[in-house]
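Pilot study result, target chain (302 residues):
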Amino acid sequence: MNNIIKSWFVNDEQEIKQNDPKANKIDLKRILPYIAIHLGILAVFWVGVSWVAATLCFMLYFARMFFITGFFHRYFSHKTYQVGRKTQFIMAFLGSTAVQRGPIWWASHHRHHHSHSDMPDDVHSPHQHSFLWAHTLWFLSNRNFQIQKKYVRDLLRFPELVWLDKLDILPPLILALSTFAFGVWIDRLFPELGTNGWQCFIWGFVISTVFCYHATYTINSLSHLFGTRRFETTDHSRNNFLLAIITLGEGWHNNHHFYQSSTRQGFKWYEIDITYYILKAGSWFGIFKNLRPVPEAIARKL
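Predicted structure:
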């Protein structure tokens, strides 16, 4: 039991060999927190809702979706812009609040995806596996619990990132406790608003986390099945306006697979890319530097 509980808080990786029959198995004991956070949505029937809780849910969904798309994806996975080391760690910490593990693990699997997109070795391709596996089951398996270290040697040079990846439960735990404390504080100061600690925790942390989960996962699954293809890439990536809206710009997936190094994924002016707009605004204040543009040779062909 102690080992099970420890596995929820500390990522001590065990090497899984490719031919190990347990490699693609899902250890239900290890993923109990993931199951619990989904079941936690049912608590909404107990805590109810208020405009304060609903607003907190939206704000934390929006913020953490940006942390995933702007930090974990466009910076840690693709290095489409530059930041200082302190800012890098803050970005890693904020991204980890989305409960999608740490930046090294996230980037390693995403880089692996681009190297094998929709080919047999792509662990979350809906063309190689079932839709449910591509959408969510792949990262619950024993094999994919591991970091693909050969893809992230640049990130493994930073001990603070390695530490955060090992204790990636810490940022979401702090956020979860903060949502509860915020609700208690609001209840004491403004009881007429009709909220409390548990309501803010369920809406601000649990529900927004699950929404952020599955919106992110659609890029692995739906963005390789539904949408339009501007570029003839070697995979099945597609541009999807609706997915671009709910993921703040990630739905321009065919654009991204054609040219991965651009900070901007909405190549045309009308392709809404909220993540890019925020990063661009941050560059005006010197937070994010040297944002990589869409090459002129590609832009002229659009």
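One observation from the pilot: Residues 50-299 form one domain. A full batch analysis is planned for the follow-on phase.
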